[in-house]
Amino acid sequence: MPAKGKHRRPKFLRIPRSIAVAGTGGAALALPLMGAVCAHASAPAAAVPAVVQKVATVSVPAGIAAEKTAPKTYVVKAGDTLAKIADREHVSGGWKKLYADNRAVVGADPTAIRPGLKLTIAGQGATPSSASAATRTATATAAKSVDAGYTLPVQGATIGTGYKVPGSMWSSGYHTGVDFVVPTGTTVRSVAAGTVVSAGWGGAYGNQVVVQHADGRYSQYAHMSALSVSAGQAVTEGQQVGLSGATGNVTGPHLHFEIRTTPDYGSDLDPVAYLRAHGVVVG
Questions:
Q1: Best exposed site among 19, 95, 177, 182 by fewest CB in 10 Å?
Q2: Number of domains in the chain
Q3: Mean confidence (pLDDT) of the chain
């Protein structure tokens, strides 16, 4: 028991003259203090300032935000199409956007691009992730297995009789293909990958081969002196299908070449326009 008449002096908690730092979930608030605080007293509510939350600046990791690249120039190569270029260059809006941006260069026909043309690649999308890039690579590889490109049926040849030249010597009233002037024995190649649907004697066409391609079109090679393939055989772009000659209804050696919508006579298309649309330079 304390001695009678004596009072115990209340103890004070001494705090150095400084500041106290209150942790508030990452934000810090510095509060000025009085020289001492009584152990039995409580600070008035008005004396405690409201806690101000700290606003943090969040940095976005590199590669998360989509970033568009600046426009660039693309030089058309053999075998290119607007669709292929737009896909390969990740053009936002696809081949239609690419064509709209380059109509003055390409012209009225979007399929008539040719090697050497300079296209402006604008409006590119975000750089693909590694996963989507891998998917795109696999798709492109699969596409190449069925459409590796296009080439001329014979090399270094000039065109004799053109497409749709009128004449009574043809049953249709016009020439249904083009004649490449080459000597007998010149290598004749498939203009694109495909499957041989017929190979043999074709009446006025002499020895002929017809190949179906991945786009649903058919190419025909006629008046050949020898055949190198048979019906049902798969061929690659540039593979030899025979040798040129002068069999059938001809006045001299040459290769008669057609593009058709079906394997049969009478479904012809302009073969030169077709080859040029696929990037092949036809002299």
A1: 19
A2: 3
A3: 76
